[in-house]
Amino acid sequence: MHSMTGFGRAEHTAQHLIARVELGSVNRKQGEVVTQIPRAYSELEPAIKKHLLSHLTRGRIQASIHIEPTSQSVRSTKIDLAKAKALSLALEEISEHIGQSCQLSATDLLRAEGVIHFEENQLGTQEVWEAILPALQQATANLISMRAAEGKDLKEDLLERLQTLQELVTRIETNSTGLVEYQKQSLLRRLTDAGLELDPSDDRVLKEIAIFTERCDISEEITRLNAHLQRFLDMLGYSEPIGRSLDFLCQEINREFNTIGSKSHSSEITFDVVSGKTELEKVREQVQNIE
Where are the domains of the chain? Predict the structure, then answer.
């Protein structure tokens, strides 16, 4: 089980350039990749996105690609002697006007735009991609490793919360034992107290009791809750992405709690239902982080 948040960084040095890749991911229902790459190599964005989405199914992934030339990429230098001479003459003229010597230094020549130009080897898109890919692969592996580590922590937290939910469901099941019969006798007693002398075997009474009994019977909901919790527990051991499935299970569990709460006439069960929904909300918050 993996989290959707993490970070990965790597670099690769080729003959003419150094490629640095930084990846960061945050929660997102779908898989989404946003890239930052020098404009000259923007045509590589589809390949970068394809690579990332083949390894990461969910989350918003920010990919920053930095390209730096190596010393071997410099083919030659060109010196614009006319500009250098013009710069020297300009400094001499300034010296005459201010009455102070202005000396031309090497630093001035390097800083002056266009005086010295370094010609670099023109790198093709394929050569750049071959430099980026190893760094991208390593950064992806590092990102996945961090997401896996965070996923392990999430799993441990969810296991504890599932245990709490299971204890609450067990307690609800225990408190519901005999509840139907109790409600049946309570109904008959209220009818008697109201001065209505009805035969308990009367079809009308039996029909009313059957309807009332069905309305307060929560055995099916408890069975489904136990099944959902077991399914949730089983899925925590899966290797494939399970975030969407767990989110759906949380909705189903919440639906069963709501139904039990609406049927129950027991204060103990109502209290456990509220506690269960509170704990389930914490589970859902964690599930939002799972790939």
Answer: 6-71+125-146, 74-120, 149-287
pTM: 0.70
- Residue 253 is encoded by which pair of tokens? 């569990």
Cβ atoms of 192 and 184 within 8 Å: the answer is: no
Question: Which residue type does 109 have?
Answer: L
Contact 134, 235 (CB under 8 A): no
Token pair 């027991």: residue: 266
- HEC letters along the chain: CCECCEEEEEEEECCCEEEEEEEEEECCCCEEEEEECCHHHHHHHHHHHHHHHCCCCCEEEEEEEEEEECHHHEEEEEECHHHHHHHHHHHHHHHHHHCCCCCCCHHHHHHCCCCEEEEECCCCHHHHHHHHHHHHHHHHHHHHHHHHHHHHHHHHHHHHHHHHHHHHHHHHHHHHCCHHHHHHHHHHHHHHHCCCCCCCCCHHHHHHHHHHHHHHCCHHHHHHHHHHHHHHHHHCCCCCCCHHHHHHHHHHHHHHHHHHHHHCCCHHHHHHHHHHHHHHHHHHHHHCCEC
Residue 289 has pLDDT above 80, yes or no: yes
Q: pLDDT tier at 200 (50, 70, 90 boundaries)?
A: low
Question: What is the pairing mode between strands 59-69 and 31-36?
Answer: parallel
The phi, psi pair for 11, rounded to 5°, reads -140, 155
* Candidates 3.40.50.450, 3.30.360.10, 3.30.230.70, 3.40.109.10; CATH matching 6-71+125-146: 3.30.230.70
User: Of 27-31, 255-259, 264-268, which one has max mean pLDDT?
Assistant: 255-259
